[in-house]
Amino acid sequence: METKTLAGLPILVAAVALLLWTTLTMKTVSPMTLGAGAIASVGLAAGALLVGTAGDGRSV
Question: What is d(CA 52, CA 8) in angstroms, rounded to the nearest whole number?
Fold first, then answer.
């Protein structure tokens, strides 16, 4: 595997786990759950960008 793929996959897995945990445990909307959701969405975007650009050699 390429370096970008190896770097992006753990970011994606951690972001998915955080977003799933936030969604399943949210009883009310609070600043902590909104912050965790925002961090998870940034992690998903970063991981997808790394994995998506790994195959064709484009730089991020």
Answer: 9
